[in-house]
Amino acid sequence: MLTISGNLQAEILQLDPVVSAEEGDDVILPCFHPKEQINNVLWYKQLTGQKPVLLASSYYRTQPFKFYNNFDMPKRFDLLRADGSSNLSITSIQQSDSAVYYCAVAFSNVVSFGAGTVLLLKGHHSNKYTVQQLPVPHLLYPKDSVTLQCSVITNICAGDHSVYWFRHGSGGSDPGIIFTHGNRSDQCKKSSETVSPTQSCIYKLPKNNLSLSDAGTYYCAVAACGEILYGNGTKLNVKGKNLKLIQRFQKKMVRKTKHRHAYTYTRIVLRTHATLLLNICKEREREREPVT
């Protein structure tokens, strides 16, 4: 939660750090705030790499929301107000709606922000470029290292790319930007093997000395050619050290059990063979005894 000036703080809850939708869908972004000590409710929209833009504001309970920066044309944005909540409704989702939306409340000289909600478009494909993220194929443990990869492939726009990484943690933590890339020539390669020459740029995010707090889904956002496109996310599973020790112990026990079973089986076979040999010897002794 971000607070600007003053000593009073309001707890703003945006319970959905990431909301995924398909183009044309309707979504509601929840925002819960105190019922008392609140003068204004505000919503901001922030495109990747840009400053937040005021979307709407209102005096709490007394006036309807007022929209700014042409967000009321056409009328796809609306505020659903209830006791202790002011939820943002967006209808007929478009690619331009992909952004981070912040709910804020003002009281006295203090403005308090929620952690933000990232609105992602599922299945959106730009006709200018493609963003791909590779999965991490194995479990990771504390102190391990891994490198996340984001590829940008384009055959139209060869200008600079701005690439941003942000994380949606398993505990619903702030989905803010954690790393940014500029466009560098050593990250991009051109290919003329196809009819339309393509340019492929690879951006990497190294994660060293992992801890449990690094777990979550990492998204790559690319701003290029006047568009912003998100990758499908790379999930990072970081398991506790205790689990790793348990797995090692289980493997060791399996090996010991196998050896024990093999040893037991050998003893049974030898004992059986010894019994058979003893019976054969006794039978032969009986055959040698004279008949009376």
From TrEMBL:
Segments forming domain Ig-like: 10-105, 144-222
GO cellular component: plasma membrane
Cell compartments where the protein resides: Cell membrane
Keywords, sorted A to Z: Cell membrane, Disulfide bond, Glycoprotein, Immunity, Membrane, Signal
InterPro entries: Ig-like_dom, Ig-like_dom_sf, Ig-like_fold, Ig_sub, Ig_V-set, TCR_complex_component
Pfam family, one: V-set
SMART domains referenced in this protein's UniProt entry, alphabetically: IG, IGv
Gene Ontology biological process terms in this record: immune system process; response to bacterium
Domain of life of the source: Eukaryota
Cited PANTHER family: IMMUNE-TYPE RECEPTOR 5 PRECURSOR-RELATED (PTHR19433:SF133), T-CELL RECEPTOR ALPHA CHAIN V REGION-RELATED (PTHR19433)
Protein name: Ig-like domain-containing protein
Naturally occurring in which organism (per UniProt): Astyanax mexicanus (Blind cave fish)
